[in-house]
Design goal:
By secondary structure, the chain is an all-alpha fold. It contains seven helices and no strands.
Length: 181
């Protein structure tokens, strides 16, 4: 979202100052350096990580709405909403990193944690491959396109299992020996 979508949105905007894109990238980096470790402590347990799913959804939704609203006014309004969007997406990014790693390790049965982490890594690779296409489609759609990229993290609450329990969704994992578990 940040590396592709934000600069493209700003470049195609009539209102946003084009010099804003690199400044928002710097803001993103500074926030991650300053806040990643302090925010990670809020997701140190499975229950804590699960409770972060709603704030994560809210931050991501706020970023999308602010991005869409940046097209509604002049340069000042665009700068204000784009900065709000950058802050919201950065917070969502940090919360997502914390939640996804905690839940992927905590919910995997001990004998197949490596397989679960491998699938999570594959999902991240797919996101990096498909993400730029989705963001480009959102930009081509216009302001309402950003809302199509929202993910319902509340669904993850229904999938999350209590500590020590098997995941709520049926799964088949191929072990290193090639057997399905």
């Amino acid at each position: 979202m940040f590396k592709v979508g934000l600069p493209l949105w700003i470049a195609h905007s009539d209102q946003a100052p084009h010099g804003l894109a690199p400044l928002l990238m710097v803001l993103n980096n500074l926030m991650v350096v300053a806040l990643q470790v302090p925010l990670a402590r809020f997701g140190a347990t499975t229950a804590a990580a699960r409770s972060l799913l709603l704030p994560l959804s809210a931050a991501f939704a706020l970023g999308g709405v602010a991005m869409a609203l940046s097209a509604t006014g002049g340069a000042f309004t665009a700068t204000l909403f784009l900065t709000t969007s950058a802050v919201a997406f950065t917070v969502a990014e940090m919360l997502h990193a914390t939640v996804s790693w905690e839940l992927s390790v905590a919910l995997a049965p001990g004998t197949v944690q490596g397989a679960y982490l491998g699938v999570q890594g594959l999902a991240q690779s797919a996101q990096r491959s498909i993400g730029p296409l989705a963001v480009t489609a959102a930009i081509a759609t216009g302001p309402l396109g950003w809302n199509g990229l929202r993910r319902d993290h509340r669904r993850d609450l229904r999938v999350s299992a209590p500590p020590g329990a098997r995941p709520a969704l049926p799964h088949r994992v191929v072990s290193a020996a090639g057997y399905c578990e």
